[in-house]
Amino acid sequence: MIKQAKGFLDDERLENERFNDFQEMYRFLSLPIKPGLVQAVEAGWMLGFAPHGIRVLMTGGLIKPVGHPTQQSKKFFCIVQLEKLRLDTEWKGKAVDYVRRHWQDKNHKAEEKRQREERRTRKAR
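The chain above was modelled as a monomer; its predicted structure follows.
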């Protein structure tokens, strides 16, 4: 009984977080004048990608942060560049394909690793 209640509360907390994230995104996208520089979260909102999708696009060279940030530092993106990319349907197609391929490759490698581990455990028996 306690686990069910805890699970319910966790689900409710996640729903509230999602709702708050949605409200924050809506507020940002509704701004009549947006800031000149934004971070990955806001860049993702503008382009229709999750923040981890923005990191994938950076790896593929499809989006570049402003300046010369170190690997560990926060990345900032120019709002003017993002607006151009947002309207470029050809770029959008390339970006979506790149992110999709990235996750397909990553999932494929994870599946291969899982199968190798499974074969090793069978041989060890």
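Residues 89-124 form the longest helix (36 residues).
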